[in-house]
Specification:
Blueprint: E1 6-9, H1 13-22, E2 29-32, H2 47-52, E3 62-64, E4 69-70, E5 100-102, E6 105-107, H3 114-127, H4 156-167, E7 173-174, H5 181-186, H6 206-213, E8 219-222, E9 225-232, E10 239-246, E11 249-253, E12 257-260, H7 264-273, E13 302-309, E14 323-325, E15 341-344, H8 350-354, H9 362-370, E16 372-379, E17 388-392, E18 395-399, H10 405-421, E19 426-431, E20 467-469, H11 484-503
Parallel strand pairs: 1-2, 1-12, 2-8, 3-18, 12-20
Antiparallel strand pairs: 3-4, 5-6, 7-14, 9-10, 10-11, 13-16, 13-19, 14-15, 15-16, 17-18
Helix pairs in contact: 1-6, 1-11, 3-11
Cofactor: FAD
Transmembrane segments: 6-32
Keywords: FAD, Flavoprotein, Membrane, Oxidoreductase, Transmembrane, Transmembrane helix
């Protein structure tokens, strides 16, 4: 096979969106995806299959540093983790792009401002057909283009919850969502959060940007292609070849540009496992790593599930996930430091609770779920060089050093008080752990200084001119909102940069 101009490794939010941004450029582009398309089966809408039996979880184990092995919640399908995401496509707040002091330390500034990034947020919202509403959330940053679609409507019990929070003087707002609710519900009366998208209901990486990209006949997708390592040129200044396995065969490609979009953990792992020039395959610190920052600064939001339960009234919502609350995003409500974001989870049921509460009888779990409004509390995890992803032979090792837990404790306390004030006598909460790594980021961060960041502000590796890393790994901060839209916006920005600097004839 002739070498393409560009190879994109991974078809998740980063890889699929940069492919869409490069469509029509005239470049020949190959997307290598290790997984296969997600099949449509009855498992896709079965809470028992998904949450109890773990039908879709990967057949791999990672290891805690100095500890036990665990089964991670990463997914390997066309579209990546976005096939299961909650479809929340929200912007970082303007303040997130500047240095911001938290209870647990300082969140550093991005290498560019919100104002510079804003047009790419607007383009990403259009590409992902985001449903939303402006003017409800006091932390909402400037939008140059309004949402093209009205927000997904609240169900009656959620409209009541919105009114209850407003009654406390708070500002509940519609979540910006990549969901066609009518299409989603045609395939089953469930929520979409953590459910695999086998139809057109969710606008994920596959149904959104990848579909748009593949209209270009110069862009192709190969599945079942597991990239093993990248080979540097003899002088170490570029990537000479991609080595991958497909259907048991070893294959090699030598494109002009390599775009690594395998996800924050796997992109870092691939770079760490690849040989440094002149060191042999086993030696050196890996690729793009003269800063010694590859794999470091791993972040994954500090988050908890919170159930507001009223045994006197049922919550009959099917999908539920339409509200957020950012009153505590920029301060604790008392003039103190930021806490975080609150948003609805998809509607839980007894099977979902059973996955976390093993001993309770099923009827009790069903009753609890049927009378609860289910919330997700999310706080910023701060970058720390000792919070890191490492490799040990064939093993992936995670050393996650959580930070800023004071914010999660504060948000949990204030929201428990708020829900009780709204009339919910029982409020339960439980933190999420490392098995729920849906917001992984920071492992190959961008920055202005090659001594402290592997990537420049356009996600080009400082060490290798023809290597870009475009996935959650580039994020210098986690903020306290879902990262998908920020990854997509930067992917479009980088695609535009590549067009101007690499493809302009």
């Amino acid at each position: 096979m002739a070498n393409p101009d560009i190879v994109i490794i991974g078809s998740g939010i980063g890889g699929a969106t940069i492919a869409a941004g490069l469509a029509g450029s005239g470049a020949s582009i190959l997307i290598l995806e290790r997984g296969e398309p997600l099949p449509a089966t009855p498992h896709a809408r079965s809470t028992r299959s998904i949450f109890v039996d773990g039908h879709y979880r990967p057949k791999e184990m990672w290891r805690e540093a100095g500890g036990a092995a665990f089964n991670p919640g990463n997914y390997y399908y066309v579209g990546g983790n976005s096939k299961f995401f909650g479809a929340v496509l929200i912007r970082y707040r303007k303040e997130d792009f500047s240095e911001l002091e938290h209870f647990g330390g300082v969140s550093p500034a991005w290498p560019f401002s919100y104002d510079e990034f804003e047009p790419w947020y607007s383009k990403a919202e259009q590409l992902f057909r985001v449903r939303g509403s402006l003017g409800e959330d006091p932390t909402e940053p400037f939008h140059s283009i309004p949402y093209a679609f009205k927000p997904v409507p609240d169900e009656p019990s959620i409209a009541r919850a919105r009114a209850e929070l407003k009654g406390l003087g708070l500002h509940p707002a519609s979540l910006p969502l990549g969901v066609d609710i009518e299409a989603w519900l045609k395939d089953g009366k469930t929520g979409w959060d953590a459910f695999p998208n086998t139809g057109q209901g969710k606008v994920d990486a596959q149904t959104g940007p990848l579909t748009a990209a593949l209209v270009d006949k110069n862009i192709r997708l190969e599945t079942g292609a597991h990239v093993d390592w990248l080979e540097p040129s003899p002088d170490g200044k570029s990537i000479a070849a991609i080595h991958y396995t497909q259907n048991g065969s070893q294959k090699t490609l030598s494109p002009k540009l390599v775009i690594l979009s395998a996800g924050a953990v796997n992109s870092a792992v691939m770079l760490l496992r690849s040989p440094s020039a002149g060191n042999g395959k086993a030696g050196g610190k890996g690729l793009a790593n003269s800063s010694d920052q590859v794999g470091r600064n791993f972040m994954n939001h500090n988050s908890s599930a919170m159930l507001a339960i009223d045994p006197r009234r049922r919550n009959d919502a099917v999908y539920q996930k339409t509200l957020m609350l950012n009153d505590y995003y920029l301060s604790d409500g008392k003039g103190g430091k930021p806490l975080g974001n609150v948003q609805l989870l998809g509607k839980i049921d007894g099977n979902m609770l059973r996955a976390n509460v093993k001993l309770a009888p099923k009827f009790a779990l069903d009753f609890m779920a049927g009378h609860a409004v289910d919330w997700y509390l999310m706080c910023e995890d701060l970058p720390d060089p000792e919070s890191r992803i490492m490799v040990d032979g064939k093993e992936i090792v995670m050393q996650w050093r959580r930070s800023n837990m004071q914010s999660l404790e504060g948000l949990t306390k204030v929201m428990r008080e708020n829900f009780r004030a709204c009339g919910y006598p029982i409020v339960l909460s439980r933190p999420f752990d490392k098995r729920t790594p849906s917001h992984q980021c920071g492992t190959v961060r961008m920055g202005n200084d090659p001594a402290t960041a592997p990537l420049d502000p356009f996600c080009r590796a400082y060490d290798h001119r023809n290597l870009f890393v475009v996935d959650g790994g580039f994020l210098p901060t986690s903020a306290a909102v879902n990262p998908a839209l920020s990854i997509a916006a930067q992917a479009l920005r980088v695609a535009d940069h590549i067009r101007k600097t690499e493809l302009a004839a």
